[in-house]
Write a structure and sequence with these properties.
This protein is an alpha+beta fold and 574 residues long. The protein has 15 helices and 17 strands. The chain has a 5-stranded antiparallel beta sheet with strand order 2-1-5-4-3. A 5-stranded antiparallel beta sheet has the order 7-6-10-9-8. It starts with a helix and ends with a strand. It is a multi-pass membrane protein.
Length: 574
């Protein structure tokens, strides 16, 4: 892919896509926030509407509550002949027709219509009403039926009905029924005061899906299919978005105080989304501005930059062919692109010198590799010579020489044959064992040794040749100076994430000044260490460089009490 295309692609990734994503995410979040805010607003409006509805219905219910306990109604329902005088009718009228919203009522005994005021519904017709069963099961509590569910709206005379069973004041036996007819203006007044947006609507819906009443008054009695009316609906949210009357709308619902009713607010989504149009327009403007900026950036910067880079690339191709020509630019801009050309020109003038240096270094490298190959011959020569000596010792019957040669061979194989710096802990201890076996031939019975390594620590890795110099120190500075036989003990243990290697001897020990003197002189003054090239200080510095400051050696000694050298290394799995 060409560089210019890559830069344009980068601009798309770094500018266009982030701006589009930012605008989209902002628009979506703002729209969701508006939906949530609108839902909360309508939920509060529905809650206030339900409170007013409850107050209005309770006012009517209190009138009927008071009326059915009065002697005028109680005695009328309990007399055998059911004869109602004019005065009794006036008394009953005064009990019920004292509210401006109550238009009429009917009073029934257990088997017939006793008295009605502007409501000539027979007892048989009353039993056929949709609210009759609910009235019977309500046990005297008032049952409400709105215009959209009692059929009055479809008949052209919408009315709100309250029906209830009348019980004997003393025995609580059912003695009759009271049906009160209320003007729909009661609901209209309550719903008209409810806050809605333009073209919004508030519905009163029963559990069967019939619109009992609504603010606009256009759909009373119609059948709806709201999901929250289903028994299995999960009411985690009190709003959702769906189509109502073929228009996408925000639907907010609230269960009414009347358990058979729901209050529902319908708001067209285009009214809510209109408030998000500003965010959408700003996002579109940002995208257009970004597009214009990218075009200008490509015209006045990318083109010239790519031209400079192409000049440098062409110059590199000429260099590849062995042609060293400086790059000339017709127009200088005094920026990094000119520095690139100047740097290339300087590079082309120095490239011959670099080639000569590389050739010289290659010759030195080949010479070093040849010397390394020659150096590999020496260990094999030593191993072969030791094998020959061992064979001669076996033929001569000298087992001590044979054992010493075998130990020396194994010691050398570990010391110079292992290319890696880290070896298993058991191999390091095996190296020390061979070293001590060789020293036994020199010191004879002057010392004994013990090596203890737990089985679970054998495979952990350690720096090569860190224990043998410590043991060598113990032999030459402790055991060799003793008149009685000495002892050297090697132990390995684990402390948390670290390994601890202890080298103990029962020699004469030394004080701090002696240790400091030996530490300062250990770099090469003592002849005994010239061959090995390592010592206490060397081991400590090697461990400290590889593993860090917490790791190294710790010397514990006191005159007359022997010495203990503790080596601390981290646990390293193979």
């Amino acid at each position: 892919m060409k560089l210019r295309r890559k830069i344009l692609f980068a601009i798309i990734l770094l500018v266009f896509i982030p701006v589009i994503l930012m605008g989209t995410v902002t628009y979506i979040n703002f729209s969701n926030a508006m939906e949530k805010k609108s839902s909360n607003f309508y939920w509060i409006s529905l809650l206030e509407t339900d409170r007013k509805l409850k107050f209005a219905l309770s006012e009517i219910a209190s009138i009927s509550n008071s009326a059915i306990t009065q002697p005028a109604i109680q005695q009328t329902l309990k007399q055998p002949e059911f004869v109602i005088t004019y005065d009794r009718k006036q008394e009953i009228n005064n009990l019920l027709i004292n509210h401006p919203m109550i238009t009429s009522f009917s009073l029934y005994s257990k088997d017939q219509l006793l008295y009605q005021y502007n409501a000539p519904m027979s007892y048989e017709d009353m039993k056929k009403q949709i609210w009759y069963g609910s009235m019977e099961s309500a046990e005297g509590r008032p049952v409400w039926s709105g215009p959209g569910e009692n059929g009055s709206a479809q008949a052209g005379n919408p009315v709100l009905i309250q029906a209830r069973v009348i019980k004997d004041y003393y025995s609580l036996e059912d003695i009759g029924y009271l049906v009160v007819y209320v003007k729909p203006d009661l609901l209209d007044q309550i719903f008209w005061e409810a806050a809605t947006l333009k073209k919004g609507d508030i519905l009163l819906v029963n559990k069967q899906g019939n619109i009992v009443f609504n603010k606009s008054g256009e759909h009373i009695g119609q059948r709806t299919d709201f999901p929250f009316l289903e028994s299995h609906y999960s009411k985690e949210q009190d709003y959702y978005i769906d189509y109502y009357e073929d228009e996408k709308s925000l639907i907010t619902f609230l269960p009414s105080h009347n358990l058979d009713w729901y209050l529902v607010a319908i708001t067209p989504m285009n009214l809510i989304s209109s408030e998000s149009d500003t965010i959408r327009n700003i996002a579109i403007i940002l995208v257009m501005v970004s597009l214009l900026s990218a075009v200008l950036f490509d015209r006045y910067f990318v083109t010239r930059l790519v031209r400079s880079i192409n000049s440098a690339v062409n110059g590199m191709k000429r260099v590849k062919q062995g042609i060293f020509m400086p790059i000339t630019t017709p127009h200088r801009a005094d920026d990094e692109s000119d520095l690139l050309i100047d740097g290339f020109n300087q590079m082309s003038t120095q490239i011959n010198e670099l080639i000569e240096q590389v050739q010289t270094e290659q010759g030195r490298k080949k010479e070093a590799e040849l010397q390394a190959l020659m150096a590999q011959i020496n260990p094999h020569f030593i191993y072969n010579s030791l094998e020959s000596i061992n064979s001669m010792a076996v033929l001569q019957g000298n087992k001590d020489i044979s054992k010493m040669v075998i130990s020396l061979g194994k010691l050398l194989r570990i010391s110079i044959s292992q290319n890696q710096e880290l070896i298993p802990l058991h191999m390091e201890f095996e190296h020390v064992r061979h070293y001590l076996d060789i020293q036994k031939f020199r010191f004879e019975d002057k010392f004994s040794y013990a090596i203890e390594i737990p089985e679970n620590l054998r495979t952990y890795m350690t720096q090569k040749l860190i224990v043998q110099p410590i043991v060598e120190n113990a032999l030459y500075h402790a055991i060799e100076q003793m008149e009685n036989p000495g002892t050297i003990v090697l132990e390995a243990s684990e402390v948390g994430p670290d390994l601890i290697i202890m080298v103990k001897d029962n020699g004469p020990g030394f004080d701090l000044l002696t240790l400091q003197s030996l530490w300062d002189k250990e770099t090469g003054n003592q002849k005994k260490y010239n061959d090995s090239g390592v010592g206490l200080k060397n081991v400590h510095e090697r461990l400290n460089i590889r593993f860090g400051s917490p790791y190294g050696i710790l010397v514990c000694s006191s005159p007359g009490f022997g010495s203990t050298i503790r080596i601390r290394i981290p646990k390293i799995l193979p």
